[in-house]
Every structure is written in C-alpha cells, then in structure tokens.
Amino acid sequence: MRLTPLWIILLGMCSCTNSSDTNENGIRGTSENMKIDTSVTGMKNEQEQVSVSGCYRAVLGRDTSLMQLMQQGEQLSGRLSFKNYEKDASKGFVQGMVHGDTLQLWYTFSSEGVNSVMEIYFLKHNEDLLRGIGPVANSKDSAFYKDPPNLKFDVDPVFHNIPCDEIFLKYL
Fold this sequence. Notes:
Radius of gyration: 19 Å
Order of helices and strands: HEEEEEEEEEEE
Distance between the termini: 70 Å
Shape: globular
Number of helices: 1
Strand content: over 45%
Largest sheet: 8 strands, antiparallel, barrel
C-alpha cells in the first residue's frame, strides 16, 4: 500500500500540536502575558460576536478600574475610570467596535486637566475581559497600539463582569 508515507506525515503533523500552551483558564499563552492567537480570538471569525453590555471592575492592589459598556450590534459605547493609588486617576468615555470576542475601544479621558485619547483592546474570556498590552505610539493627544495583532492579554487585572448596581455613577 503506497499511502503509508502520507499517513506517517499526517500523524507527525498532528503530534506536533502542543496543548500545554493553554493555561488553566483555557487561554493560550503564559499567565504573565498572553499573545493573541487569531485562531482563538474574534479577529479571525467575526460571525461569532459576543455580547459585552454590562459593567466591569478590575482591582490590582489598591488600583481600581470601572467600566460600563453598552452594545448595539458591533458598536460599543460607555464610560471608563481608572482610580490609581498614588498615581493620576482618569475617567472618561469609550467608543468602539466588537470583532468576535475582541473589543477595540477609544478611551477619551481627562487626567490632571489634560484631555487625551487612548486606544484600548480587550479580549472577552467567559464573562470577563482581559486587557491588551503592547507597544504604543503617540501622536499629539492620542496613544495607539503599533501592532494590534500581536497584543498580549494579561490575566491581571481581570475586568470582572459585575452587576451594574454595584457601581455608583459618580465613579464613572
């Protein structure tokens, strides 16, 4: 039977996949920082759009971030605030798009009397959001990612989905 070499090649290709790239939460990458795998995120398959309307809170040490999102189709809008211990706080508005399970937002905020705009990416994981991290470029009052397809998604701090009545509007 002449197909034997083909079966050996196929078996070798299948055995090269490494399931240890996935952490205990089912996310590819290391627990310190996670690189986008477009086969896993919505950047590849936009038909499977997720719902992200709701409120989210992230706590890391004494720093707290709060976000309220409203979704209409692919469009997102809402509010976001960062309350940092011993650093400048900021709060403002977000607008953006959801692409499958990936959120691209533009955060327009004021901090210490200066108005700025910052691009932010999130990856939806279960009911929570993981924030994208990567090299940033600046242009006037705006900051944006240099290479969005290669962002890493941190597991700390996780933006946990919470009931919106737990957030007082004065904090947003």
